[in-house]
Design brief:
By secondary structure, the chain is α/β, with parallel strands linked by helices. Helix content is about 55%, strand content about 20%.
Length: about 170
């Protein structure tokens, strides 16, 4: 499948503020949102952010990969209607095992999704400096926006090194 895959995570970072992060396969954070109030729940939050993810991908979004928390029938229908690969990890371990056996794409997606957990840790601990210390919600939003920009610049700066590493591995 050609195009962009969105990998989605949600975490609580401070005083109950939820943070939604969506990255593409190269590791760029293509969408984020810090919620003042409690998160609407992972499935609903994905439904709310999905149109923006499609737009930010320039119509090239071909798959969404998430953890179990985002699974819902509505999300499955939404992705199916757009003919977008559903890489949402099933809550049922038997269903996950079946999909992993039958579908190489889901195997690769789940393997890559596990790397997203590490990326979230790097984002939170390195780029945000742990728990954001900015006072006031608007200042925390600004701190998150600067952290996203810094993270994405870091990803861009590493691209030549990553490509060199991939070429050496292929040779």
């Amino acid at each position: 499948m050609e195009g962009l895959y969105g990998r989605v995570e949600e975490l609580t970072i401070l005083f109950g503020n939820g943070l939604f992060l969506a990255e593409n396969a190269e590791g760029f954070i293509m969408d984020h949102e810090l919620k003042r109030e409690m998160s609407p729940g992972d499935p609903k939050w994905l439904q709310q952010r999905y149109p923006g993810m499609k737009e930010k991908s320039g119509g090239q979004l071909c798959g969404v990969v998430t953890d179990r928390g985002f699974e819902s029938k509505a999300n499955a229908r939404m992705l199916e209607q757009d003919e977008v690969f559903n890489g949402i990890c099933p809550r049922d371990p038997k269903e996950l095992a079946r999909r992993m056996e039958e579908d190489e794409v889901i195997q690769a997606a789940m393997s890559r999704r596990s790397q997203t957990e590490g990326r979230v840790g790097i984002f939170k601990n390195v780029f945000l400096g742990g728990t954001p210390l900015a006072k006031g919600f608007q200042n925390r939003q600004l701190q998150v926006a600067w952290a996203v920009l810094s993270h994405n610049l870091w990803v861009v700066a590493r691209l030549p090194w990553v490509r060199e590493k991939q070429l050496a591995k292929a040779a």
